[in-house]
Amino acid sequence: MGLELYLDLLSQPCRAVYIFAKKNAIPFELRTVELLKGQQHSDAFVQVNPLRKVPALKDGDFTLAESVAILLYLSRKYKTPDHWYPQDLQARARVDEYLAWQHTALRSSCSQAMWQKLLGPVLLGVQVPPETLASTLAELDRNLQLLEDKFLKDQAFLTGPHISVADLVAITELMHPVSTGCQVFKSRPKLAVWRQRVEAAVGEDLFQEAHAALMKAKDLPPLDLAMREKLKAAVQVLLQ
What we know:
Belongs to the GST superfamily. Theta family. Pfam families: GST_C (PF00043), GST_N (PF02798). The protein has helices at 12-23, 43-48, 67-77, 89-102, 106-124, 130-152, 165-179, 189-202, 204-215, 225-235; strands at 3-7, 29-32, 56-59, 62-65. It is of the alpha+beta class. Strands 2-1-3-4 form a four-stranded mixed β-sheet, with helices on one face. The longest helix has 23 residues, at 130-152. The mean pLDDT is 95.
């Protein structure tokens, strides 16, 4: 069996892995794991990833969890173009720096915005207090400012003149609040131009393909009561 990628394209890190693999013509078998149906808890998937999270990778007898680890594994195994994860010590360190920062910063606020503004009300029937959502959006705005000031600056891409895995991880995160109607790029022309560069670099068709399910998330049907209660417990921290 060749390379298998276990993904749900409603998940932002799954989209980053999907785009990276497709853009670099890496052959893989897509194994869809529907998070909203609880398929990450199935016995079959737990054999692949006991953490019960996507993305996950299976390469023969080798399994791997965590999106950053998967992206870097793919870049090394398939010797993808250097700009994705540069060999130069300091250029690579810049990519590593962003990947280390985003976990508890941009990802957190983007996920909270998605659940509080869209998925909570639509799927779970949970309306968060207006002040909670306002606080989340203010935190998102602070992280967007840091993204501009600390990472993008006056560069073409987040870590330099060429696209890297850092840009894929960032853009897939930002599309979460975009899907809820948040005007992430409207008052930030520098970030808006960066988004256009990233889309052009990966290809608009691939970008839209990867985000098609996300952009239809507002049309998802409510979950049944049993699944709603399970999911509510799992995402409670995102609704606060």
